[in-house]
Amino acid sequence: MSGPRMGMSQMNGNNRRPPNISRMGSNDKPIHAQHDDLIKYIYDSWSKVEMDRGSNSVRYYQDEGAHHLKDFKPFDLEEYWGRRLHQSVQQQHS
């Protein structure tokens, strides 16, 4: 024989009933209508992209560069920590 089973409300000390899922979206459109709207939006957007891709006009992006960053060198954090670890090990063994 098994002992009493604990439900979610007993496990977390909350005696309230879980929210009724069917009531949660009562003011919104039904889910299938929202789904249909989303599918239509994606289809229309993709159709527009396909039409734009099929046009003969050439579009390109040319980066003019950031003049204030011409001497910028990215910081290699992995190399920095590697050097620190190496120096730390060297100091411990000397």
Write up what this structure looks like:
Residues 1-31 are annotated as: Disordered. Keywords: Cytoplasm, Nucleus. The chain starts with 7 loop residues before the first helix and ends with a helix. The protein is elongated and about 70 Å long. The relative contact order is 0.04. The longest helix has 24 residues, at 31-54. It has a domain at 27-51. Helices cover 52% and strands 0% of the residues. The chain contains four helices and no strands. By secondary structure, the protein is an all-alpha fold.
Tell me, rounded to a whole number, the average pLDDT: 76
Q: In which range does the helix fraction lie?
A: 40-55%
- Give the C-alpha Rg: 31 Å
Number of strands: 0
**Number of helix segments?**
4
Shape: elongated
- Helix/strand/pairing category: mainly alpha
As residue ranges, the low-confidence spans are: none
SSE order, one letter for each helix or strand: HHHH
Q: The biggest beta sheet, please? A: none
Percent in strands:
under 5%
Termini distance? 69 Å
